[in-house]
Design a protein that fits this description.
- The structure is a single chain.
- This protein has helices at residues 26-37, 55-58, 87-99, 122-133, 164-170, 194-205, 222-227, 239-244, 256-263; strands spanning 5-8, 16-18, 21-23, 41-45, 64-67, 72-75, 78-82, 103-107, 112-115, 138-141, 153-157, 175-181, 184-189, 212-216, 230-233, 247-248.
- It has 267 residues and is an alpha/beta fold.
- The longest helix has 13 residues, at 87-99.
């Protein structure tokens, strides 16, 4: 069997909430191990930056990580690609975020920057998780002191006072906006996506597109699901993801990931 290059989202694909706790089904752990034993390369492909990947994911012993929507790629603990937003661009972004009244979270490989201003959106929910689970990376920054911060991507939230269109127009040639719904956006450097991460590793390993597989559940997975030769949507995925996928498997807690790779004959 030719080796496949397989890409997994994290939240809703490998990890889910169950009884108030983040869990990885044993069937998921077994399937990833079996895929690797059968000679396939297994990579996390996530919107999370490296600083947001917890111990339970690292313990899966994946072959590597595509982090931050393609901005940071690791293979067996070696960084083989990195695209950080330059300070000059980052400082312009921070100034415009404040002028457009947008809540923000700056995500880097080693640091997560939050504004000292109070949050009233999805970002406020993330802040509590990051403060407790990723305390080493967590940093609060007063907007007036936000300068020369190292980050790879960022998230924004809008409300009725925000001027999102102005912000988007200001950076239309430099940034890509991923609409996650409810006024929440992930923003990455132009040219970076979960799909660009797949292309980079195809070139790195000399593996053709026909031997790529992606599995995910949310709208920021669409670039990799539309790019990979074989795409799998987890049960419970949003309709847009299910429509884009070649296969819809069962829910994560119903051993959906294992069932999908059994059906493909890879485990």
């Amino acid at each position: 069997m030719k080796p496949k290059l397989i890409f997994f989202d994290i939240d809703g694909t490998i990890v889910t909430e169950n009884g108030g706790k983040r869990v990885i089904p044993q069937s998921t752990k077994d399937t990833i191990h079996d895929l690797q034993q059968n000679g396939h390369l297994c990579f996390i492909n996530t919107g999370r930056t490296l600083s947001e990947i917890d111990k339970t994911i690292h313990e899966l012993c994946m072959d590597g990580f595509v982090c931050g929507c393609g901005t940071y790629i690791i293979y067996h603990d070696n960084v083989i690609f990195e695209k950080t937003i330059p300070f000059s661009l980052g400082n312009r972004i921070l100034k415009e975020l404040e002028q457009c009244n947008l809540e923000w979270l700056l995500e880097g490989s080693h640091t997560l920057y939050y504004s000292t201003r109070p949050y009233h959106s999805h970002i406020g929910d993330f802040q509590e998780e990051h403060r407790t689970v990723f305390s080493v990376a967590f940093d609060l920054v007063a907007p007036e002191n936000a300068c020369n911060l190292k980050f790879d991507k960022f998230c924004i939230c809008t409300d009725e006072t925000s001027n999102l269109l102005r912000f988007q127009n200001a950076f239309k040639d430099e940034l890509t906006f991923i609409d996650r719904g409810s006024g929440f956006y992930e923003v990455v450097p132009s040219g970076c996506s979960k799909a660009s991460g797949i292309q980079y590793l195809m070139d790195y390993f000399h593996i053709p597109l026909e031997d790529t597989i992606a599995i995910g559940d949310s709208t920021n997975d669409l670039p990799m699901l539309e790019f990979a030769e074989t795409s799998i949507a987890m049960g419970g995925s949003c309709p847009q993801v299910c429509e884009a996928a070649d296969m819809v498997t069962d829910d994560i807690l119903q051993d959906g990931l294992q069932h999908a790779f059994h059906k493909l004959g890879l485990v």
